[in-house]
Description:
Blueprint lengths: L23 H11 L15 H12 L2 H4 L8 E2 L7 E2 L21 E2 L7 E5 L5 E5 L6 E4 L6 H39 L8 E5 L6 H11 L9 H9 L4 E9 L3 E8 L4 E5 L4 E4 L5 E5 L7 E7 L10 H12 L8 E6 L5 E5 L4 E5 L4 H14 L5 E5 L6 E4 L1
Amino acid sequence: xxxxxxxxxxxxxxxxxxxxxxxxxxxxxxxxxxxxxxxxxxxxxxxxxxxxxxxxxxxxxxxxxxxxxxxxxxxxxxxxxxxxxxxxxxxxxxxxxxxxxxxxxxxxxxxxxxxxxxxxxxxxxxxxxxxxxxxxxxxxxxxxxxxxxxxxxxxxxxxxxxxxxxxxxxxxxxxxxxxxxxxxxxxxxxxxxxxxxxxxxxxxxxxxxxxxxxxxxxxxxxxxxxxxxxxxxxxxxxxxxxxxxxxxxxxxxxxxxxxxxxxxxxxxxxxxxxxxxxxxxxxxxxxxxxxxxxxxxxxxxxxxxxxxxxxxxxxxxxxxxxxxxxxxxxxxxxxxxxxxxxxxxxxxxxxxxxxxxxxxxxxxxxxxxxxxxxxxxxxxxxxxxxxxxxxxx
Length: 393
């Protein structure tokens, strides 16, 4: 073998080196470095031929240190003679091969002898299991255990929430109980109404007064149903407004505003209907009243509490608006079939208002005329158009 490459073709490969015999000790070291060859058993530790084979191998391999720099691969196959035969030798070039074993992985945990898996612990507390026979399969076993303090904190939190709910329920029960107690005391006969007073009663029906008294008397001043008593009073045609107040501890006062009769008219049944300023029929009489002005002309036969036509309401408002210098001179009001309203004076003078509209302005014109001229000298005064026209006697 020549140590120089000048005599060879650049493309020609270095000559193949073949070693026929390798000692068991070398094979054992190679097995320790690269692992056992599949199907080949590991050679024994001691062999009487090891020293001779080592010397022969050393003499054969010495020239390779300077002749070859490229790395080759060793392949060990079984032989019929002693069980081993070396086909290719790995030579690492100029650098010496580091035979120092790699440091052990700190995550690896030693297992029992003969185990087929490698146990590795991760930072989260789990275990990574690698099967030695199937390196492509990795099984992660989660060995996490719940923190016992977490369950304790959860139990404490649930207990606090439960106690909070119980506290609110107790508080609500106390409030409801207190309200029921107060209502029971206030509704007790201790504060029952013993005396009922009425004010403003003139024409209100005595039967209505008795019903209202029964509603109020005996009820508590705090829980008495004043709305019902007020409804009973407003059913009376004479009653316009009602106000009921309680007098602590055992009294009640009823204030009534009655309707004021203004005019009356004769119905088809020949009964008189008394009407107030709002047109409400206050009462129905069989006789003719003398305290109120009559609206001559036949009107509808309405029951007490009903509302008359607008013309009767206008007549009542006109009477209420009459000044004191004219009111005593008025004998009656007249209602024609066409719905026109007239006023008859005691001296026989007729004042025609026409349709019941703008009665206030028409009445002002009549008052100004009567102040300038004596009504006794006038037969007819017509203010239906807004401007007064007169007809002398």
